[in-house]
Design brief:
Mean pLDDT: 90
Order of helices and strands: HEEEEEEEEEEEHEHEHEHEE
Structural class: alpha+beta
Distance between the termini: 81 Å
Strand content: over 45%
Number of strands: 16
Helix content: 10-25%
């Protein structure tokens, strides 16, 4: 029995215990990981970090996280939806949102989509995006348009950057940051495209701005914001 207890203690000591980091809706948080690396969690995000002297491992459970300078000194492995990413001196975003394919957006450095063998590995170039669609066996990274990475990272400054998204899509984006939903009462109005830079924590201000552009009315009722065609 004594020998068994010693074995249990030794196993517990050698197991890597993760550190969990999370943000609530509307919150953003930056966490230094040591050796210059850091992670910035966007709204409603949860990750786990496993670390030792040989390797750092990050599991993205939900939300959106910016991983900067990963693998500059300590090798970094990122896991999301059963997929592994190996990073070397890299800065990139992993986005896992409900109802959407998981996305990887590489700003710079070397990020490799790890396969079962070295031949099956896929390097991701800087300024590229990759959607990890469930069940798909082959993935094709796509180059990001000029300036797109900056728009994708506008949330670091508390902003939402829209570039032709529909009003319905913009309302869905605001739902990630606020407990006050935006409801588009008219189907045609919901398909109108929106471009601009807006405060992520001000859904009412956004609603009033777009209502003025589209000649619509804004009202608050039952804890929600309703945008409807003007009568």
């Amino acid at each position: 029995m004594a020998a068994s207890l010693v074995l249990v203690v030794m196993l517990a000591a050698t197991l890597q215990m993760p550190t969990a980091y999370a943000t609530v809706k509307g919150e953003m948080r930056t966490v230094p990981l040591g050796d210059g690396a850091r992670v910035t969690l966007n709204t409603d995000t949860r990750i786990k970090v496993y670390g030792d002297e040989a390797q750092r491992r990050i599991r993205v459970l939900r939300g959106e996280v910016l991983i900067e300078y990963a693998g500059t000194i300590v090798p970094t492995l990122v896991e999301v939806d059963g997929t592994r990413l190996e990073a070397s001196a890299a800065t990139f975003v992993v986005r896992k949102l409900e109802g959407q394919p998981t996305q990887v957006l590489v700003q710079n450095g070397r990020v490799v989509l790890a396969g079962a063998t070295r031949r099956s590995q896929m390097p991701l170039a800087p300024n590229t995006a990759l959607s990890l669609t469930a069940g798909k066996k082959e993935w094709n990274p796509t180059p990001l348009p000029s300036g797109q990475m900056g728009r994708e990272l506008a949330w670091r400054e508390g902003k939402i950057a829209l570039q032709g998204e529909t009003l319905a899509e913009a309302a869905a984006t605001y739902a990630r940051y606020s407990h006050t939903p935006i409801v588009i009462a008219d189907p045609d109005l919901a398909q109108m495209q929106v471009t601009g830079l807006f405060a992520a924590n001000n859904p009412l201000g956004f609603s009033r701005a777009v209502a003025e552009v589209f000649n619509a009315d804004v009202r608050q009722e039952g804890g929600r914001i309703v945008i409807a065609r003007a009568h």
